[in-house]
Amino acid sequence: MAKYFDVHPDNPQQRTIGQVAESIRSGALVVYPTDSCFALGCQLGSRDGIDRIRSIRQLDDRHHFTLVCQNFAQLGQFVHIDKDVFRAIKASTPGSYTFILPATKDVPRRMLHPKKKTVGVRIPDHTVVQALLAELGEPLLSSTLLLPDEEEPMTVGWEIKERLDHVVDAVVDSGDCGTEPTTVIDFSGGEAEIVRKGAGDTARFE
């Protein structure tokens, strides 16, 4: 059965955040809230975590996983980014955007798009996630919690706990999330390509 962590949305309890972080370090797959919708997350190097996310969402090897980062200093360790692209991303973060960029050697190969060698990165504008990332000291390997054959992500923590009780290890609940996933912008070719319109405004990239 999955553990259930009830976290205050504005003042996350440090003890609880520490427990969630420790479970992730121990190999747990967790459901956690973001500024767009709930997501599945695990430790960066977790082969088991990636396999379980693929299984839950029924993803193929062309799916872009996302590194959810605390800040730009952390993000810069995992992707190659030039000055122009940096300015464009900086103006939009933290926020509900995922950016696809060429990965550095610090990103596990199993996370990469098999042909493009790219990865998704984002910096969320969400108090609970920021607290968790600060406690972890590294990005979360993540994917939107969008189940197969469903058009919208689940929004209620306790319902997720009931539905996924035997396939995830923990659910972090800080209140209902939205149903709109992040806006995805592909910068891997140098120019902004809007891959998915979501919660983030696309006007600056059009």
Automatic annotation (TrEMBL):
It comes from the Bacteria. Residues 14-200 form the YrdC-like domain. This is L-threonylcarbamoyladenylate synthase. PROSITE patterns: YRDC. Pfam families: Sua5_yciO_yrdC. InterPro entries: DHBP_synth_RibB-like_a/b_dom, Sua5-like_dom, SUA5_domain. The lineage of its organism: Bacteria, Bacillati, Actinomycetota, Actinomycetes, Kitasatosporales.
